[in-house]
Amino acid sequence: MKNFPGKTISWRVADGAIELTLDRAPCNEIGAATLGELEAFVESLESLERDAHALIISSARKEGFCAGADLRELYRESQAIAAPARAAGLRDFLERIHRVMNRIDSSPLTTIAAVHGVTFGGGFELALACDLIIADKTARFCFPELRLGLIPGFGGIPRLKRDLGNAVVRDLLLTGRSINAAKAQAVGLVSQVTAEGESMRVARATAAQLKKFDRGTSIAAKKFIKPIPHEELQQEIEIFCELFERPAVEAGLRKFVESSDALPYLP
Length: 267
Known about the structure:
7-stranded mixed beta sheet, 11 helices, 4-stranded mixed beta sheet, about 50% helix, 2-enoyl-CoA Hydratase, Chain A, domain 1
């Protein structure tokens, strides 16, 4: 399916590039509906890849790229079922989102995240699954999970360790602070910083440049420089599931859900 207008995401193929657009109010929180459509996307990806050389992931929401997991949905579901079923449901959700992230990470195409504004938690992890991150100057990156007593659960830690030095990884993970696009470029996280509202234009221009090169060579180069840390990704799931059962996590989620702030995920 070359064109898909979903309820939370859409995709199309244009000039040899697959363009996947996140569009769920307020800031593309990833819950059951978004995950289901992302799974439909990766199921279609093999056929889409035959006619493409690049994949661009972006957001239609003015608030930002993606605020991460839908914590309100996660909390409501955790309260509605007994502990054994809750643990099984959480593990299933994590394994499903990991399969999506791993498929994007391992795509033979060159993958580009065109980000702006809020790029937090699971949204940051989605960007990390891509080969290149192009950020407009409004972008901010953050792992706020420690405030809830959790760690990132969508594959962020192993991918950040793969791409950056441990000092940066520890700072982002252990402090929960956000960094702006300029800082992200300085530490090697972002490949290009653009003017506000220009990340998608630059991503398309980059994809057009990639089209000039031999596809087989690009695939071989990517496979060589970008191994998938499967063992560490599985360890992350185990740690997240263990932490989720702690009372501190339930208290942190409840506080988040009951917050009257418009954007309670902001630092």
